[in-house]
Fold Phosphodiesterase.
Amino acid sequence: MGNGVNRISLSLERPGHPSYSGHADSPVHACSKNSTSSPVAAEMSSASSSMRDFARAANPFRNWGTWFKASEELVGFRPTVDFLHTISSDNTCLEKYVKTIIGEVMRVLDADRCSIFFVNEVRKEVLCVGSIDLAPFSMPWDKGVVGAVVHQGDMLNLADAHLHRSFDNTVEKQSGYVSKALLCLPIKHVLNMERTIGVIQALNKRSPNGKLDGEFSEQDAVELAKLALVIGDSFYRQRWMALERAVSSSDTQVRSVVAYHGAQSAQQSCSRSSCQGSRLNGGANNFGSLQVDSSWESEDIANAEVASLDFDVLAYSEVRLEQLVPLMLQQAGCSEHCRLADDCVQRWVEAVRLGYYSNPFHNWAHGFSALQMCFYQLRSEEAFSSFSHLDTLGLFIAALSHDIGHPGLTNSFLVNSCDELAMRYNDVSVLENHHASLACQLLQKKETAICSELDQASQKSIRRIMIACILATDMNIHTDLCRKIAACMGSEELNVGHDKQFLMNVCIHTSDLSAQ
């Protein structure tokens, strides 16, 4: 052991040795890290190399059949029914799930503290989603002991965490809680054992006299690996749902730490009525009068030039751009004819803005720029005059949301790296399907359901238009769009009345390209 560090090479105990049984009186042997005469250490020397390889990787998702062939001890591994029910239920919220695991880890290991971390590979962060007395927080995934476990993929057992080269005391300073003994287990991806998707960290072992001066034993490491085996699939599921909610949430803290533990209460309920499918007032160049919000001065609106090719999206702050969106919806007639509630629209726009990551390109400014170009085209081009207010609303929602949650990576990269998104959408328009899904989720949340006063048929139409438009931003269809446009030039092939979706696809595709 160097610098108080022991990288565990685990082995499972044979029948007769204590094991995690899920009962409060389950014994756990204390094992000296420097002694080779302990029962567990002696057993480790006789364990097969394959089992040592398994343990060293702390692989909690090994096939059950393989596990049983390698060790008989799991026959006696009986977690409580309540524990199994809680972690396996689809109805268990993240907060309850995390608290259940933390309580079980602390009980089984006699640990004073336990923290649960999710790994966000896209943002290169580790996210503490559960701890006893700490608010959720995020940090770079190459920082601290947890970061070391994420990258190395090995379990770490530290007699004194401060002596580890990767130890970072930032959290310790903020919380005032001093860490000493530390046991860290990586949780692996269910389909790729080389990827770490989470970490369970136990802190400060209680000694028999109740003091926090103990060290975690080899047996403790075995018990933690067993518990991780049981929670495997549910951990993967909870992490995925949390990351998805984080992107679509309008709460900035939720976005940054993936700690959304419940749905926000709806601020108001809306009655439903149909939206008139009338055309924009008179077609091109006739959006009506711009209604100025009280928070905007008249010179701000005059200088915005939102209906001009001279509009400079980078000249405005994110909040100013956010305030422009309701004004554009008003000028296009969507607010009046589709009965959009002002407060709901404001919450929706804010949620979309917060759903964009701070990428160099695929960010909020790019999303707004695509909307602005759609706004300009509908106001200027006669070809789009056949759009109803419902069509326009669907197009505008799609334009503003078309890159929400963009990770800053390409479809090809996600497919070639077998990313979770690629697996979820079967390698087809991966990012576009992801953006469309997040956009639809926002429209389903009560506080951001701007279409809530439409009847069900109109809402379904909005969703269909929006999804089709967002999928049309996939560059894989660029050549086909260009060919169809070329074929329509100088001919009567294009029936504007029956090809509105094609026109909307062209509008958003060109707007996406113009927002460079």
User: Anything to note?
Assistant: The beta strands are 5-6, 111-120, 125-130, 137-140, 156-158, 182-188, 196-205. DSSP finds 21 helices and seven strands in the chain. The first strand starts at residue 5 and ends at 6.
